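Is iron/sulfur cluster placement plausible here? Inputs below.
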Amino acid sequence: MDLTQKILDLKKEKKAIILAHNYERPEVQDIADYTGDSIELSRKAMEEKDAEVIVFSAVDFMAESAAILNPQKKVLLPCTGARCPMAQMLTVDEIKRAKTLYPDAPVVVYVNTLAAAKAHSDICCTSANAVQVVQSLDAGTILFGPDRNLGEYVAEITGKKIISIPEWGFCPTHLLFQPEDIMILKIQHPDATVMVHPECSYETRKVADFIGSTSKMCKYAKESNSKKFIVGTENGIMHRLKKENPEKEFIIAYDGAICPNMKLTTLERIYTSLKEEKHLIKIPETVAKNARDALERMFEVKS
Ligand code: SF4
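Reply from A.M.:
I modeled the complex. Tokens:
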């Protein structure tokens, strides 16, 4: 029996669902029940009432969020080494330090944070809803972390003062996109539309026609009249974009934009994870409660 069939059989036996982020390997995306960005996957995890086990094919903070929102389900992360470096950049100490400097400013944390940081925030956001979350707050100054680029983008749109915590947070993969590479591609493909993620630098965002999260890029690619796109986000999204739009052409803005952490999940690891029910994500309820409140406040914001 091939590995895919073994996974499907185990999934049925354990009443499990597999969720995969848009940046996962193509074969992992193909075996998943749902593929999406962090907000889409968090919603799916909550909607799947009959599922007893959630295999979260992504990185640590996403599986943590699913475990926080679904305490009655077993949330498994197939590879414990799949850790997002950006999520490690915002510590609780950093939040506390910023709060002493700006006691009246609400703390908005990107979902790309560990549970302890979420627990010390007022509200979470994703790249898909960060603008709406910040707009929903009755404050002109916001503490925002850990991604400085996303914070800058939100400040540009909302006009609010964003204090980045830490000052330097970033996604190493999205910083690989350079405006010069995109300009060359634009010369080679003058009919192409440029879509980039808000985690890209200011200079890269400036040469884009569309800035959005991966879910927004997928929607935009589907609805746009354009037949060709230059894509500025992690390479894994190309699989979904091509699958959903076979008649359109997608060109990655930089071939090397691969998040090594997202690629650690393999079919073999999913199989072992399901079979041995490892690695189970457990968040202490003292931390989970506050983090859940911050995530639920985010879901209440219309986006
Ligand atoms: S793409 Fe960037 S933000 Fe996403 S998991 Fe990888 S390092 Fe973290």
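Short version: Residues 197 and 212 are 5 Å apart (CA to CA).
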